[in-house]
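Structure first, sequence second, as always.
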């Protein structure tokens, strides 16, 4: 723990990060166990704001206790940033009020859409086209203007690419650049897509704009078939994903990273073991990207 605290206090860590260290998603079924933890067991937490807007009573008081104890980030589920319908200003107002009330450090969303004549209850892929780049980037800028802060967009898992005119990596980079927003780097999604769509996960990772990373996700998945992985957040992180996360730290430098687990929860000791693995990788790679940049300059 002391080593990780030293990492958190390292002035050389880029101050663009809204949080530091290792994180864990706050889920209601985990709240009793998480409330009993020492504060530095995890460095930050994340919630889906849609699950907490206008929540009062016992749950509201519990959330307040957590946000007074830990830094928090908000990770949206239903803004439908690439969708055809107007942005939900009522939802955005509620999210802004929730974030301000609890001092949350940043807002992130998925680079996807989730509504078409009503909510689809799934994250659908945005077509990889130039038109979609301009449309999606404009909507991200609108959200940033509304919230008054830069947001982070997550690279998502997807299972079909409707009418692509460019590669996934080119689409993501074009949107991030035109919107001038941050990146929520989901390492598991890169691995899932690399298997499902047959590309090199390391090359994809290295082509992302590291300077835009605000924080990261790592999670488990389900192997439906040899060439089909489903991103579930319901299992332990596997070794190839850990290896890809370490490569990300070696290439970009350690960035804040949160363990996602949404169901099929193991004992808390196992979840904390995965959080500890994130911490160990961060500590092992502290200074690596900085050293590489110094060597290039020399």
């Amino acid at each position: 723990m002391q080593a990780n605290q030293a990492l958190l206090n390292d002035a050389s860590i880029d101050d663009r990060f809204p949080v530091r260290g290792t994180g864990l998603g706050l889920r209601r079924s985990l709240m009793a166990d998480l409330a009993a933890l020492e504060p530095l067991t995890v460095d930050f937490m994340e919630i889906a704001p849609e699950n907490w807007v206008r929540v009062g009573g016992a749950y509201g008081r519990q959330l307040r206790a957590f946000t007074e104890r830990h830094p928090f980030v908000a990770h949206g589920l239903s803004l439908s940033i690439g969708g055809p319908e107007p942005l939900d200003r009522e939802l955005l107002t509620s999210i802004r009020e929730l974030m301000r009330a609890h001092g949350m450090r940043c807002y992130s969303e998925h680079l996807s859409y989730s509504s078409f004549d009503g909510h689809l209850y799934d994250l659908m892929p945005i077509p990889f086209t130039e038109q979609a780049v301009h449309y999606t980037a404009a909507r991200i800028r609108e959200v940033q203007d509304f919230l008054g802060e830069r947001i982070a967009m997550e690279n998502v898992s997807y299972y079909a690419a409707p009418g692509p005119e460019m590669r996934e990596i080119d689409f993501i980079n074009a949107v991030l650049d035109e919107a001038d927003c941050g990146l929520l780097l989901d390492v598991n999604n890169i691995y899932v897509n690399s298997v499902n769509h047959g590309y090199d996960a390391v090359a994809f990772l290295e082509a992302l704009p590291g300077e835009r990373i605000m924080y990261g996700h790592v999670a488990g998945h389900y192997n439906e078939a040899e060439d089909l992985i489903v991103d579930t957040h319901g299992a332990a992180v596997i070794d190839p994903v850990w290896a890809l996360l370490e490569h990300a730290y070696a290439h970009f430098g350690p960035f804040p990273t949160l363990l996602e687990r949404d169901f099929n929860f193991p004992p808390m000791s196992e979840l904390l073991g995965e959080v500890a693995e994130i911490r160990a990788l961060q500590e092992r790679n502290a200074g690596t990207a900085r050293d590489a940049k110094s060597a290039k300059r020399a």
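Margin note: Residues 1-13, 292-298 have pLDDT under 50 and may be disordered.
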